[in-house]
Amino acid sequence: MKLDEMKSMIREKYASIAVEGLPCCAPSSACCDSGHLAETLSKKVGYADEDLRAVPDGANLGLGCGNPVALASLREGETVLDLGSGAGFDCFLAARQVGPT
Fold this sequence. Notes:
The protein has 101 residues and is mainly α. Helices cover 48% and strands 0% of the residues. It has helices at residues 3-20, 34-44, 49-53, 68-71, 89-98. The chain is globular, with a radius of gyration of 15 Å. The relative contact order is 0.13.
């Protein structure tokens, strides 16, 4: 698959989730329990059970490709900018480390 084709496919998947309200990026038959699927996918890319319990319901869409907060060595008082395309899952986790200010 060419890079342009791959980028186009990824854009289409994310757009369909946003526009059509699809519960996940897997085939529809796999989305019967999208919360469970999102949790399973997130664990596979490095999120711990504690991380998954620490965010509001619905924040984990299962769209991530890794756990940047685990690698970032964030400190209290730092500013975090999340340029992701999800529901702020990583921002919720980062906020626990950097604090309210």
